Amino acid sequence: MSKEMLEAFATLEKTKGIKQDVIIDAIKAALVAAYKKNYNQAQNVEVDFDERKGNFKVMAVKTVVDEVQDDRLEVSLKDALAINRAYEVGDEIRFEVTPKNFGRIAAQTAKQVIMQRLREAERNHIIDEYSQYEDELVTGTVERRDNRFVYVKIGNVEAVMPHRDQMSNEVYNPQDQIRVLVTHVGSDSKGAQITVSRTAPDMVKRLFEQEVPEIYDGTVEIVSIAREAGDRTKMAVKSNDPNIDPVGTCVGQKGTRVQNVVNELGGENIDIVKYEDDPSDFIANALNPAEVIAVQFGEDEDEKSALVIVPDYQLSLAIGKKGQNVRLAARLTGYKIDIRPESEVEFVDEKSTDNTTETDNNANNEAENTKNSDSEEASDKTSSDIDENTSADDNTEE
Question: Could you tell me where the DSSP H helices lie in 60-173?
Answer without folding.
Answer: 77-83, 104-130
